[in-house]
Amino acid sequence: MSAHADVLIIGAGPAGLNAALAAAPSGARIVLLDDNPWPGGQIWRAGPQASVPAQAQRLREHVGALNNVQHHPQTRVIAATGPRQLLVEDAERGWLIDYDTLILCTGARELLLPFPGWTLPGVTGAGGLQALVKGGLPVRDQRVVIAGSGPLLLASAATARHNGAQVVGVAEQATRGAVAGFAAQLPRWPNKLLQAFGLFDRHYRTDSHVVEALGTERLEGVRLRQHGKLVELACERLACGFGLIPNSQLGQALGCTLHGQALAVDAWQATSEPGLFAAGECTGFGGSELALVEGTIAGLAAVGDRQGAARHWPQRARWQGFAKALNHAFALAPQLKQLARPDTLVCRCEDVPYSKLAGQRDWREAKLSSRCGMGACQGRVCGAAAQHLFGWQPSAPRPPFSPARIETLLCLDDTPPA
Amino acid sequence: MPELTLDGRALRVAEGTSVAAALALAGDGCTRTSVSGQRRAPLCGMGICQECRVSIDGRRRLACQTLCRDGMQVETRA
Ligand SMILES: Cc1cc2nc3c(=O)[nH]c(=O)nc-3n(C[C@H](O)[C@H](O)[C@H](O)COP(=O)(O)OP(=O)(O)OC[C@H]3O[C@@H](n4cnc5c(N)ncnc54)[C@H](O)[C@@H]3O)c2cc1C
Ligand code: FES
């Protein structure tokens, strides 16, 4: 079975939703794919313990009401099967989609760095805990420590507290000076300032990072280094994430040039590949406002409305300024590269310890000799960690991009040989 | 309110609850056993890490991105 889209959008977060909204008036047949049950992406994740802001509700309803936008939830991309064709899969079936123009709005994921004990049940990402709680994970009366870096720590703490958790510590690795300097710039983006005040937590500490997660069968406590001193906190959950990294793998597999870890784009949000646009955090971390305006520009440019697209450039520049200030303030300290011990697992899929990776020449050699990155996550966790720890550039992923069912892979046989 | 079975235990959950959340409501929240025998639980909460893969109605799926449905059978040790 196969389908056709004039404009195919991957990812229904702020960028993807706005891209669909901007492209729709052209009358183009638009298909919007996302692997989550509901549209909204990371920031507007729905669920029994989530509250989605009114602006997001309206955007979702607006896009949902468009006749020429078809939304496929819980659908992921499995392979690129030919020029302008992708193999996708949902819970029930796999099928091929042909497209004229593709807009990648695949967002970002957390940078998860290995430290002793991080594989214990009870340890999650920082945004990871927030996402799980929104989906109904019970945290009432549990003691929670949040650690890592970036504004997501406070957002995650707020969600946990709102759902009855006792947040006993928030450890930010950045220095007090860096965080204060960032906060001092916030009046340039007034609504961000309000958000930051709303999220403030009295347990917030700068110059602090996780040293070890303690426990045998599951997490029992955390050892932190706070201003150079070791402290231990008893807790049921540790939520630790070191900022966000772009989900650029699909773009990379389709041949797009990277700029650092992100997909490189021009003023039209066009990538290096003809007919292929990218918007939102897969082009670099910058928050939902930047993702929204980039989505609009990509959607308009994808249907040829360059004049309309260019009208949004000033707004994009404004939010790029915010992104720059943010990335500067929360740059990761070098000592975070020394958290893992020789026996700390770096690859959680294949259980490969740090000692098997240290000393390897590059990602390819590490993979071949240790199976690191060859498991189910396809290196999306350990490849990013290894890039941070050792400076290895991960190779473009090979299909299947995520574990797929045999029946889906059989669709590949429908395609004529190249 | 959907009612599902998790490793043989019946549980009723709020509409929209993820399978990952249901596993924590019903028990220890663990999802799989690693190749070296460690029990693991969801890590990223967003479809990246694959730590949450479980058997749902006989198919391997991600617990963090799957919503509980009436009659669902979830196995963490399959
Ligand atoms: C875990 C997490 C929590 C966050 N929480 C907050 C918060 O509380 N407040 C805040 O201001 N910012 C938060 N952020 C930052 C947030 O990423 C941005 O503010 C905003 O959501 C970016 O929008 P986007 O459209 O670029 O990407 P996203 O919102 O990340 O949307 C991308 C979507 O594409 C889907 N996707 C990716 N690849 C594929 C694929 N191959 N196939 C199918 N679907 C795919 C993803 O699952 C996701 O739904 C969070 C980020 C993360 C990672
Ligand atoms: S918790 Fe990471 S994929 Fe589900």
CATH arch. level architecture of the largest domain in chain A: 3-Layer(bba) Sandwich
Radius of gyration of chain A: 21 Å
Low-confidence stretches of chain B: none
So how many helices of chain A?
Answer: 13
* Secondary-structure-derived class of chain B: mainly beta
Q: Total number of helical segments of chain B?
A: 1
How big is the Rg of chain B?
A: 11 Å
Pattern of helices and strands of chain B: EEHEEEEE
Distinct bound molecules: flavin-adenine dinucleotide, FE2/S2 (inorganic) cluster
Mean pLDDT level of chain B: 96
Number of folding domains of chain A?
3
Number-wise, the strands of chain B total 7
Judged by helices, strands and strand pairing, the structural class of chain A is alpha/beta
Terminal CA distance of chain A reads 19 Å
User: What gross morphology of chain A would you assign?
Assistant: globular
Report strand order across the widest sheet of chain B: 2-1-7-5-6
The first-level CATH class of chain B is given as: Alpha Beta
Indicate the proportion of strand residues of chain B. 25-35%
Fourth CATH level, the homologous superfamily of the largest domain in chain A: FAD/NAD(P)-binding domain
Give the largest chain-chain interface (CB within 8 Å).
A-B, 42 and 39 residues
In CATH, the topology of chain B is named Ubiquitin-like (UB roll)
Q: Can you walk through the features of this model?
A:
The complex is a heterodimer of chains A (418) and B (78). In chain A, strand 13 and strand 14 (229-234) form a beta hairpin. Chain A has helices at 14-23, 54-64, 126-134, 152-162, 176-185, 190-199, 249-253, 288-302, 306-310, 313-329, 363-370, 382-390, 406-410; strands at residues 2-10, 30-33, 69-72, 76-82, 85-89, 94-104, 108-110, 123-124, 143-149, 166-172, 204-205, 208-215, 219-226, 229-234, 237-242, 244-246, 258-259, 262-263, 276-278, 345-347, 352-353. Chain A is built from 13 helices and 21 strands. Helix content of chain A is 30%, strand content 25%. In chain A, the strands form six sheets. In chain A, strands 1, 2, 3, 4, 5, 6 and 19 form a seven-stranded mixed beta sheet that branches. In chain A, strands 8-15-9-10-11 form a five-stranded parallel beta sheet, covered by helices on one side. In chain A, strands 12-13-14 form a three-stranded antiparallel beta sheet, with no helix packed on it. The model of chain A has no long low-confidence stretch (mean pLDDT 93). In chain A, helix 1 (14-23) runs parallel beside helix 8 and helix 5 packs antiparallel against helix 10. With 418 residues, chain A is an alpha/beta fold. Helices cover 10% and strands 29% of the residues of chain B. The mean pLDDT of chain B is 96. Chain B is mainly beta. In chain B, strands 2-1-7-5-6 form a five-stranded mixed beta sheet, covered by helices on one side. Classes of the chains: A alpha/beta (418), B mainly beta (78). At the A-B interface, strand 8 and helix 3 of A face helix 1, strand 4 and strand 6 of B. Bound molecules: flavin-adenine dinucleotide (FAD) and FE2/S2 (inorganic) cluster. The site of flavin-adenine dinucleotide (FAD) has 36 residues of chain A, from helix 1, strand 4, strand 7, helix 3 and helix 4.
